[in-house]
Write a structure and sequence with these properties.
- This protein has 11 helices and 11 strands.
- Helix 1 links the parallel strand 1 and strand 2.
- The longest helix is centred in the last third of the chain and has 29 residues.
- It is of the alpha/beta class.
């Protein structure tokens, strides 16, 4: 792996942060690292941040540190994905920091497409497209593409190509280092922490905070920057779907409390008003045409909306009673 970051002269050097928390994903972690090592545009460095698991940290150190191209770090903050990412940011040296989930693999040109987006100095974040890899080998017939965000993937309704967005998706994203200097890091207490409830939205909150701190900031998604994300069997079940959509509502309530409902729910209103009704209509049409799963997909969309709305209502009440239950890392803590 090149120590210069590769690519054209003047292109930003990119550090890649992969956060891990369980030995159950050992082979997935190794595959994620291998995919970064195989990039057509080499990364400056790979940082593996381990979330409060000494056995996994020691095992990864034994696997990689002798090679010299991967650094293994312990999460220096509270348990959770946000603090792990902040640890990686603070320890990294690249002008751009990219994030890859520990159960995902990046296509060969992933970093090259990210780097191209930063040719415009106004661009402070570039995300990509995340494709599900179902444990069963195929998408469950009832699972609507409009809800692929439930399993951490790009969902139907996002525009194609390289487009400006409100927020990138955290498992396939990159940020300029100056973004963290301006806005601080990922907020702790809002996203995943290895617990039973699959919360999220930490990248949404950060991106909204970033565009407030830097009003001219441009955030992009380039659908050519592709990663393939493993979906375990447990997440193919309707029970997980319902739990995850409810948790998203809880998380959105925290985001709205932090940045205001106007900006915090701007994209969600368009999604609920345009994308989801069209998805229900397609599902009902497929059901009338006796196509497999049509009624199930329509029903899942309705159930997902109701679960998210319920979570948002509960989360809003909790937020009003207890205030915001998370805090952003200060810029000095992640700016390098």
């Amino acid at each position: 792996m090149s120590g210069t970051g590769g690519g054209a002269p003047g292109a930003p050097a990119i550090s890649v942060v992969i956060c891990a928390y369980t030995e159950d994903r050992w082979e997935e972690i190794r595959a994620a690292v291998a995919s970064v090592r195989a990039q057509s545009r080499p990364a400056l460095e790979i940082l593996l941040v381990v979330d409060h698991n000494r056995a996994l940290r020691d095992r990864l150190a034994g696997e990689y540190e002798a090679a010299g191209d991967v650094r293994v770090l312990a999460n220096a903050g509270p348990r959770g994905l946000s603090a792990g990412r902040n640890t990686g940011i603070a320890a990294s040296h690249g002008e751009v920091i990219a994030f890859l989930d520990d159960d995902a693999v990046a296509e060969r040109d992933w970093l090259r497409h990210f780097a191209e987006g930063y040719a415009d100095p106004r661009v402070l974040a570039v995300g990509g497209r995340t494709v599900p890899v179902w444990a069963s080998g195929r998408r469950p017939v009832w699972f609507p593409e409009e809800f692929d965000w439930v399993v951490g993937c790009t969902y139907k309704g996002l525009p194609p190509g390289r487009v400006r967005v409100r927020n990138v998706l955290g498992g396939n994203a990159s940020f300029r280092r100056t973004a963290f200097t301006a806005a601080g890091g990922f907020a702790t207490g809002i996203g995943r922490d290895g617990g039973r409830r699959p919360l999220g939205c930490e990248e949404t909150e950060l991106c909204i905070r970033l565009t407030r701190a830097v009003p001219g900031a441009v955030l992009l998604i380039d659908d050519r920057a592709v990663v393939h994300h493993r979906v375990p069997a447990g997440r193919e079940r309707f029970g997980y779907f319902r739990t995850r959509t409810y948790a998203e509502g809880l998380s959105k309530a925290l985001v709205a409390r932090s940045v205001g409902a106007g900006k915090g729910l701007e994209s969600e209103r368009r999604y609920a008003g345009r994308v989801l009704p069209a998805g229900v209509a397609r599902g009902l049409r497929d059901a009338l045409l006796a196509r497999p799963g049509g009624a199930g997909r329509a029903g899942a969309i309705v159930a997902g909306v109701l679960a998210a709305a319920g979570g948002y209502a509960v989360g809003s009440v909790r937020a009003r009673r207890g205030g915001a239950a998370f805090a952003a890392a200060p810029a000095a803590g992640v700016g390098g």
